[in-house]
Amino acid sequence: MLWNLMIWLLLGGIIGWIASLIMRTDAQQGILLNIVVGIIGAFIGALIFYRGDMQQPVNLSSFIVALLGAILFLALVNLFRRGQVR
User: What are phi and psi of 56, to 5 degrees?
Assistant: First the structure.
C-alpha cells in the first residue's frame, strides 16, 4: 500500500514536471503542483484512452497516456486562466 502511494507520487511528479516543461509552465509550479498535475493527468488520460479503466499496468504506454492527460490538463488550465493555450 505504501509502496503504491510512493510510486504514484513519484510518477506523478515526473509526469507533471515533463508536462510543465512541454507547456512552458515549469517556472510557475513547484514539486507539489507537478505531482498534482501528473496525478490528475493520469486520471484524465485513463478516462479518455482507457475508458475509465484505472487498473492498467505501469508501462510505457500508460506513462504516455498520463503525460498526454497532463498536457491536456495544463492546456485547459492555461485556456481558462489566460484565455489562450500556449
Answer: -75, 145
pLDDT tens per residue, range 38-79: 888 888 888 888 776 667 777 888 889 889 999 999 999 888
Rounded to 5°, angle at Cα 19 from 15 and 22: 145
**37 Rama class: left (phi>0) / alpha (psi -120 to 50) / beta:** alpha
Three-class SS state of 83: coil
- The two most distant CA atoms of the chain are separated, in Å, by 41
| pTM of the full structure | 0.81
Between CA 83 and CA 17 the distance in angstroms is 23
